[in-house]
Design brief:
13 strands, alpha/beta, 2 domains, Rossmann fold, about 300 residues, seven-stranded mixed beta sheet, four-stranded parallel beta sheet
Length: about 300
């Protein structure tokens, strides 16, 4: 079986269930495990994504308003790879390649079985996607084992945080404009022993006026911009720190602002999403959880 994954989460999933050797192509965003970077990339963004968050947001809005695609597929290369299975997603047209991006070229030579994976915004939906992909790839037992281990991982953290004080947590998925984290983000915060505010589980992340976040005055703030590494997120922090009333906020005064690798741990609906519960628990309850991921996946913002 030959697999092309156009979703970083799906690439991680394929490898997690032992089918990595069947991958023959990937998206430009697929980077975990590291060896997959050697595979040919068959997608690319249609605009410059190297700028600051405000510039990226402007370009995305311009493209969407004009009906222009955000991603481009190299149909010729994709056809040459002759995939039996093509993994895509339908959850967010901004974050990753969708079936519409693949079908836009309409290359008649490309015959494929298309799997729309990880299409919901909840932890349970992510696990259902694991089983769906595993079934298509003939790895049902491995998929079931991964789902079981993922559930146990979350349950283990939840058990250790039971009875602890639950801080109010604002998770930001974008800096300019400010987006609060929706989808599975609030569920992860809950499992890690916190209360996500302001946010709603299972719905798309939404833009929010800075004043709403400021006035909510959370105990903890976690900044994990979509698609940004830890280093890139840290480089963006001066824009957030320049917001009105920043130093007045409880999380800032108490030194409980954390910056995280949103690209790998907070924005992908793959196996790493369940590791993120442990990352958050380290931030929220340092007296209980050793900081195993500090400096790699997250770090505390210096005042």
């Amino acid at each position: 079986m030959r697999i092309v994954s156009l979703l970083a989460s799906a690439t991680e999933l394929v490898c997690a269930i032992g089918a990595g050797e069947s991958l023959v192509g990937r998206s430009h965003e697929c980077d975990e495990p590291e060896w997959v970077r050697r595979l040919p990339a068959v997608s690319r963004p249609t605009f410059d994504v190297s700028g600051p968050s405000a510039e990226i947001d402007r370009l995305v809005r311009e493209h969407l308003a004009a009906g222009r695609p955000l991603y481009e597929i190299d149909e010729e290369r994709l056809v040459s790879l002759a995939p039996d299975v093509l993994l895509t997603q339908t959850h967010c047209e901004v974050c990753a390649v969708t079936p519409a991006d693949v079908g836009r070229g309409g290359a008649p030579a490309l015959r494929r079985r298309e799997v729309v994976a990880l299409r919901t915004g909840t932890l349970e939906g992510i696990l259902e996607g694991f089983l769906e992909v595993a079934s298509v790839l003939g790895r049902e037992k491995e998929g079931e084992a991964l789902v079981r281990a993922s559930r146990e991982r979350v349950a283990g953290v939840r058990a250790r945080t039971s009875g602890l004080e639950r801080p109010r947590v604002a998770c930001l998925e974008w800096i300019d404009p400010v987006f609060t984290m929706g989808n599975w983000g609030p569920e992860i915060v809950d499992a890690a022993g916190g209360e996500a505010f302001p946010a709603t589980a299972g719905v798309h992340s939404t833009a929010m006026r800075w004043e709403v976040v400021h006035d909510a005055d959370p105990d903890v703030m976690v900044v994990a911009p979509c698609g940004f590494s830890l280093a890139r997120a840290m480089a963006e922090m001066p824009a957030l720190q320049a917001r009105p009333g920043w130093r007045d906020m409880r999380a800032v005064r108490d030194g409980r602002v954390f910056v995280a690798d949103g690209n790998r741990f907070f924005n992908r609906s793959g196996p790493s999403a369940f590791e993120t519960v442990e990352l958050l628990a380290e931030m929220l309850h340092p007296d209980v959880f050793a900081p195993r991921h500090r400096g790699v996946a997250w770090q505390r913002l210096s005042s």
